[in-house]
Write a structure and sequence with these properties.
Elements: H1 2-50, H2 54-67, H3 72-84, H4 88-99, H5 106-118, H6 122-130, H7 139-151, H8 155-166, H9 173-186, H10 189-202, H11 207-218, H12 232-248, H13 252-265, H14 271-282
Helix pairs in contact: 1-2, 2-3, 3-4, 4-5, 5-6, 5-7, 6-7, 7-8, 7-9, 8-9, 9-10, 9-11, 10-11, 11-12, 12-13, 13-14
Length: 283
C-alpha cells in the first residue's frame, strides 16, 4: 500500500523537478540571447561611430535613445556623431546632457569642453576643464587647456600645456602648429618659425604649417622660401603668401617680384596672384 501511494508522489516530484529544469533552461537561453544582443548592439554602436556616415549615425542614435533614453553610451554616441557631422551647436548641447548623467566620466567632460570650444564658448569650456580632476591626464585634455589659455592670453600657462601635450602624443605636428600660431600672434616670430619647422619635420604634408612658416619669416622681412618639402603648386602658393606678407610689411617692390614668380611657378593659371599683381601695378 505504501508503495502504491509513494510511487505517484515520486513521479509528481520528478515531474516538478523536470519542469523546474525546463524553466531554468529557458531562462538561461533567454539570458544568453540578451547578452548576444547587447554585444551586437555595442559592436553596431562602434561601427556607427567610425565608418558610418555621421548623419546616418545621428539618426541611429536618436532612434535608439527613444527606446532606452537612460543609456549613457547611446547619449555619448549621439553627441560624438553630431560633432563628426560638424553640427557643433547640437553636439555641444548633447554633450551637456552626457556630463549630467550618472556614470559620466572625466573623458566626457573633456569632450564637452572640446564641443564648447568649437562653438566659441570659451568661458564654459574653461569652467568645464577646471572641473576635470587633476589626476586625469590625457593628450586631449592638455591640448584643450593650452587652447583655452591662448584664448585668455595667458601665454605662460599656454606654453606649459602645449609642452605637456607635445610630450603625450606620437603625432605632435598639429599641436606644434597651434603652438607656433600662438607664438605668431604674440609677435614671437623666431619662436613661431622654429615650431612650424618642427611641425613640418613631424609631418611633411602639413601645408598649413608651411604657409604659417612663410608668414613667420615674412614678418621678419625674410622673403626667401625655407628649405622644406613642397611640390610645384605648393611652391607657387607659398610664394604668393610671401608676396602678400611683403606688401603688408611695406616692401611693395619685393611683393610684385614674388607675385610674378608665383604666377610663373604655378602649373596652372594662378588667378589670385594675377589679380593681386594687377591691383598693385594699377595702384
Amino acid at each position: 500500500m505504501r508503495q502504491r501511494f509513494l510511487f505517484p508522489v515520486g513521479l509528481m516530484v520528478t515531474g516538478l523537478t523536470l519542469a523546474g529544469c525546463a524553466d531554468s533552461g529557458k531562462e538561461t537561453v533567454e539570458r544568453a540571447f540578451q547578452e548576444v544582443n547587447v554585444v551586437d548592439a555595442s559592436n553596431l554602436n562602434e561601427v556607427m561611430l567610425t565608418v558610418a556616415d555621421p548623419n546616418e549615425a545621428v539618426d541611429y542614435f536618436v532612434r535608439a535613445l527613444k527606446q532606452t533614453p537612460d543609456r549613457i553610451d547611446l547619449q555619448r554616441g549621439l553627441a560624438k556623431s553630431l560633432i563628426r557631422a560638424k553640427r557643433s551647436t547640437e553636439g555641444a548641447a548633447e554633450w551637456g546632457k552626457v556630463v549630467a548623467m550618472p556614470g559620466a566620466t572625466a573623458d566626457d567632460k573633456v569632450d564637452y569642453a572640446d564641443a564648447l570650444i568649437r562653438v566659441g564658448d570659451w568661458a564654459r569650456a574653461k569652467k568645464t576643464l577646471d572641473n576635470v580632476p587633476p589626476t586625469h591626464e590625457s593628450f586631449k585634455r592638455y591640448r584643450l587647456e593650452a587652447m583655452v589659455a591662448d584664448a585668455n592670453r595667458d601665454w605662460k600657462r599656454a606654453d606649459s600645456f602645449y609642452e605637456i601635450a607635445v610630450g603625450m602624443t606620437t603625432t605632435p605636428a598639429g599641436v606644434m602648429n597651434n603652438w607656433g600660431f600662438s607664438k605668431l600672434t604674440r609677435g614671437d616670430y623666431t619662436g613661431a618659425e622654429r615650431l612650424f619647422a618642427d611641425a613640418i619635420r613631424q609631418d611633411p604634408t602639413l601645408f598649413t604649417s608651411k604657409n604659417n612658416l612663410v608668414l613667420a619669416r615674412g614678418a621678419q622681412h625674410n622673403y626667401s622660401l625655407p628649405v622644406i618639402p613642397m611640390d610645384q603648386t605648393e611652391r607657387a602658393q607659398l610664394l604668393y603668401t610671401m608676396a602678400l606678407s611683403a606688401v603688408k610689411q611695406g616692401d611693395v617692390t619685393t611683393g610684385k617680384t614674388l607675385l610674378r614668380e608665383a604666377i610663373d611657378t604655378h602649373p596652372q593659371y594662378f588667378e589670385e596672384a594675377v589679380r593681386s599683381l594687377r591691383a598693385l601695378e594699377a595702384a
